[in-house]
Model the fold of this input.
Amino acid sequence: MTETPRKSALPQNSATVSTHDGQSAGLGLERLVFFSDAVFAIVITLLVLPLTAEIELPEGGQSLAALVREQWPRVLSFLVGFLVIGQFWILTTACSDSSAASITD
Done:
């Protein structure tokens, strides 16, 4: 009497799950990439909120450009923070793309 191995209802490895057409997809990596994109979006949103709270719409003869110039240290710190976060996002995307390429090969 020979035993046939049972198939598990759950996949053994969440990184490679068989899709409906038989191809293997990196769902675990894809979920991680989506999560990291969402985190970066939240971080950039939180970065811009204090900046918008400090600048009020101009009243009377004052222009918006003059108000922004008055807040130049905050605008500069926002730009530096945005560029740093953007570089991290670009590096994360590049790493995930190379990881996805190695999984599918």
User: Anything to note?
Assistant: The helical segments are 27-54, 64-70, 72-104. Confidence is low (pLDDT under 50) at residues 8-18.
